[in-house]
Amino acid sequence: MGNSGAQKNRVYTLMLVLVGNMMYALTVKLFLLPANLISCGTTGIALVVEHLTKIPMSLFILIFNIVMLLVGWAVLGRKFAMTTILSSLFYPIALEVLNRVLGDVQITENILLNVLFAGMGLGLSLGMVIRGGASTGGMDIPPLILQKVFRIPVSISMYVFDVCILLVQAVVCIRQIFLPTRVLISVDFPALIVAVIKILYGYFLIK
């Protein structure tokens, strides 16, 4: 009976991690990318790298997640690595599959709806993965390392990383695209709202 319960729990955890990552990739594909919304975390870094080097997002995310996974394994231990490896590998694969299957599909051109659904989708998907006892890998790992080594709260370091990534993306927009001020504001402000909704919905309401 005990073994049956443990097996059901493992299956439940696996489903949460898989569905959460698929929902994350779907949110990025349907709302974040079509609306040109900048993002935090690994996806935000990947957007900058793709813009500057033309390296596909999915490829960069896969490589970056593997590197972060190895660092996490070395610092946080084997158990942590095992709970994270599924997310680190499944998300970029899911994103690439959705890119190929859905093509240029866009659900809505309304920027406010894209902001709302992107924030809620990212927060809900991250919350599901966390509920499954796993990490989404990538930029979720450095805050955990900082917490273990320097006792810096995860929330503080995560917010700092997110702000830094947003600032880098804003600089890229200015230097590479030369957007007018009014357009730049319309890009950066929704991105900030997405980050806030994601944090509140995912880490406050769900966790």
Descriptive overview:
It contains eight helices and no strands. With 207 residues, the protein is mainly alpha-helical. The chain has one domain (2-206). Helix 2 packs parallel to helix 7 (154-177) and helix 7 (154-177) runs antiparallel to helix 8 (181-206). The radius of gyration is 17 Å and the shape is globular.
Quaternary structure state of the chains depicted: single chain
Rg over C-alpha atoms, rounded to the nearest angstrom: 17 Å
Mean pLDDT: 77
Main sheet overview: none
Beta-strand content bin = under 5%
Helix content: over 70%
Work out the number of β strands.
0
**Helix-strand pattern, N to C?**
HHHHHHHH
Query: Which secondary-structure class do the elements indicate?
Result: mainly alpha
Determine the number of helices (DSSP H or I, runs of at least 4 residues): 8
Q: How far is the N terminus from the C terminus?
A: 29 Å
Count up the domains: 1
The low-confidence parts are 177-187
Shape assignment: globular
What's this, in brief?
The protein is mostly helical.
List keywords for this structure.
mainly alpha, 207 residues
Task: Annotate the secondary structure layout.
Layout lengths: L1 H31 L8 H13 L3 H20 L1 H25 L8 H21 L9 H10 L3 H24 L3 H26 L1
